[in-house]
Amino acid sequence: MSNNDLWIRDLITSYGLLSSVFIVVVISISRKWSNLKKRIYKAYLTGFEMECAELMIPYKKLLFKSLQHVVSRDKVLRSMGCIRLLEIGIKTDSTRLIGVDRNLRLPEYLIKGNRSWQFSHIIIERLIVGDGSCLREIPTGYVDAVVTTRSLCSVISLQSTLQEIHRVLAPGGQYMFIEHIPENEETLLRWLQKILSQTKIWPSLFGGCHLDIDPVVNIKNAGFNHITWDIFTLDGYVSHPFHLILSRQHVLGVAIR
């Protein structure tokens, strides 16, 4: 045997077992990766996002005050003193709700889940499994108000979602939003948001969420007649502070159809 052959033999003998173990571990992890992602995302929704919802209660109350002055375009609902509200990413309540969410188990959660009592006062008109980028089941000008809360970061197409929101709103209808936005340019956090989003690390673990998306420009270009917004920093105790640090900056606003 040549010296090269001996070297290859010694290399295989020395590292063959280690390489085999490494390959087995990689295969095992790849097979379990899908279930692991589901568990991480479920813990994220039932943990951090629920805590965020609690921290945002004062901001939601401020934003949703304008709902008290919304008059439905539907004669029947108007006579009942109700409005028809569409929410993309179910995180709030209303009088007559059309819900759009990517969660396949959403109907079970709202109707039969452990916390279904919280939605007992809501008339659930329709539940649509999706992300808001295609709302063809909803007629044009059908709803009086649309709400998104920390949802635009994970839609398939931000532009299509906003176009659909504009389409389904009745004339004079309100689109209310509270969405997290990136940190200022030239900061370490902004760089980290870009890296985690563009490498798909963060979206793959947390339901498609992109930390580097700023929806304000798109909302401005969606054809609304009037838009007002303000920026605030969400602060408070959460069990996973790293998540909050990466998505603490928010925009709160109303766009009129």
TrEMBL record:
The keyword Nucleotide-binding does not apply. The chain crosses the membrane at residues 12-30. The keyword Cell cycle does not apply. Pfam families: Methyltransf_11. Keywords: Membrane, Transmembrane, Transmembrane helix. Residues 119-177 form the Methyltransferase type domain. GO terms for molecular function: S-adenosylmethionine-dependent methyltransferase activity. PANTHER family: METHYLTRANSFERASE LIKE 7A, METHYLTRANSFERASE LIKE 7B. This is Methyltransferase type 11 domain-containing protein.
